[in-house]
Every structure is written in structure tokens, then in C-alpha cells.
Design brief:
Four copies of one chain form a homotetramer. Chain A is about 75% helix and about 0% strand. Chain A has about 90 residues and is mainly alpha-helical. The radius of gyration of chain A is 23 Å and the shape is flat. Chains in contact: A-B, A-C, A-D, B-C, B-D, C-D. The structure holds a DNA duplex (16 and 16 nucleotides).
Chain lengths: ~90, ~90, ~90, ~90
DNA sequence: TCGCCTGATAGTTGCC
DNA sequence: GGCAACTATCAGGCGA
């Protein structure tokens, strides 16, 4: 059965509730992160620096991926295709 | 002994790693949420509206009414009238 | 003469610079907008509501009604009733 | 005269209109940017690569600023303050 | 041409 | 209370 004009209430409700449950879990973790920062601060660390460190580490790995993507992009632009590593 | 200028490297490392682990978990959940929306869309639901529903449910109704009152005030000041949601 | 593998470097450079110049201008205007909001706030206005007003004015009213109808449908399916915007 | 409960309609209207005018200008520039990309594509360039180039150039300059900020941060953490260049 | 997906923008929340 | 980071939303571009 299809949707607009006769919505399947049960299915809709299930969807909304799954989302709400996941968002709640996400919020819990966000709170945990905040706690870690608070604890760090209580131990005398400068949280601003820690945040920067965390950000830079993430950025580094993102950058590495970007380099690969860029290489890939150029290769395609030159009409060359990298042999796929996974295969049938 | 205390921190800046002689930092307890192990403790600092532990902090950073705890944060990174938590952020990873948080990202996993965020991805799960995206999946639920994708599934909903695949089943013919309008995800934009579902997002609105989720947001409205989260929003405290007292706060909601307060905002609406102020919005109403501003709209009137501009000579605009909000289209009534209820209708004959 | 054609492009990939012998790129017209000058033309490419010109393109990139035009884009960068336009993006700079765009950023300048974005900053101006921020200034207007800041000024409004300094004059005692609630910027959150002003943003809402601006958004509503931009939104085509037909589209708005359509969204509201669908939202209404979903809310009913969940057994929730939208608080009426008009009131005694 | 103050705001909530007697909003200065003229001032409010002026604010909203200034914002709308600026947003319109911003949109015009955004459209110009789109045009440049379209023209580039018509001339045989790969717009995806151009977008990447533009993004990387922006990122580079942002990164340079970040390095400076980070240095500054560490200096402060070590209790060293860079002699302010401007002073009374 | 349509639908998906990524990148840009706007809004919210937390820190200083 | 202002500023900055982060998140969520939206729109435009790309590929099928």
C-alpha cells in the first residue's frame, strides 16, 4: 500500500520512534564527550588545546583521504583508471 | 606534579583517545539515523516532513506557543497575517 | 586546441580567479547581513524571530500550505494534533 | 520606545527589507558563479576538478592562519605571551 | 530528466 | 552576553 493520502500510521510511528531513540543515544554520547572535557579541565588541562589536537588529528586523516580522492580525480581526467582493488 | 611545561603525556593521550572513540560512536549513530531516513524515503515517506514532526515533538509545547506569539506580533507589525492552520 | 592533456593554463587561471573574486564578494555580503542582524539585536529585536519572518516571506505560500497539509496528515496519523495558531 | 509589546513596525520593516535586499544581491552573485562554471564546462573543462582546485586554495590559506593560531595557543599555554604589536 | 549525494548555508548550543 | 564550534537542513550538481 502506498503513502500520501492514507499514511500507514503504525509504520510512521515506528520510524519516528526509531529516530527518537537513536537521537537520544547520540545525545548521551555527546554528553559523555562533554564529561571527558570537563574531567580533563579539572585535571589542569587546557581544553581548548585538546580540542585543537583532536580536530587536527581528524583533519590529518581526512586530508590523506582527500589526497587519494584527488589523485583518483586526476587519473580519471587523464583517461586513466586505477585497477580496482576489489573484484569479482 | 602539574601540567603545562611537563605534561603527563600518557594521561593526555588517554584523554584524546577516549574522545576520539566517543566521537566515532557518535558518528556511527548519526549514520544509523541517516539510514532510517533513507529507508523511510524508500517507503514513500516525505523525509522533510518527518524531520519536522520529530522536531515538533522534541520542542516543548510551552516554548512553541511562546515563539508563535512573538512571531505573530512581528508579522502583525509588518501587516502580514499567518495563514490559519485550521480551515473549514 | 582542446583541453585535458595540454590545458590552456591562462584560461584556467582566469576562471579560477573569477570564481575566487565572486566568492569574496559573496562573503562580503554575507558579512553585511550578519551586521544587520547584529544591529537589530542591539536594538532589542529577537533575531531568531526575524530570521523566521524572512524565511516565511521568501517561502511561496502555496508551497507552505502544501507542506502544512502533509504535516497535518502525519501528525494525525501519530494521534497528535497541531496546536491551533489562532486563539481566543 | 522599546520592543516586545509594541514593536516599532517601521524599524522592523526596514530591517527585514535590508536583509531581503542583501540576500537578493548574494543570490545574484551565486548565480554569477554558477555561470562561470557553466562557461568553463562549455569550454571543455572538468568543473569537478575546478571546484576541487578552488576549495584547496581556500583551504591552504585557512591552514596557514590555523598554524599561526596554534602557535599562539601553545605560546600562551607555556605562559609566554607574544609581545603585542599594537600598544598604548 | 529524475533521483541521489555531496557541499554550502543557516541555526543551535556551549564556552569564555 | 558575545563569539565560535558544531549540527542539521537545504540546494545545486552529477550520474544513471
Amino acid at each position: 500500500m502506498s503513502q500520501p493520502g492514507g499514511v500507514a500510521a503504525d509504520q510512521l510511528r515506528a520510524i519516528v520512534e526509531r529516530i527518537e531513540k537513536l537521537e537520544e543515544e547520540k545525545q548521551t554520547i555527546a554528553d559523555d564527550i562533554k564529561d571527558v572535557y570537563a574531567e580533563a579541565k579539572a585535571n589542569g588541562y587546557d581544553t581548548k588545546i585538546i580540542r585543537t589536537v583532536v580536530r587536527l588529528r581528524k583533519q590529518d586523516s581526512a586530508e590523506r583521504q582527500e589526497q587519494e580522492a584527488l589523485l583518483d580525480l586526476y587519473m580519471h581526467a587523464l583517461g586513466m583508471v586505477l585497477p580496482d582493488t576489489s573484484e569479482t
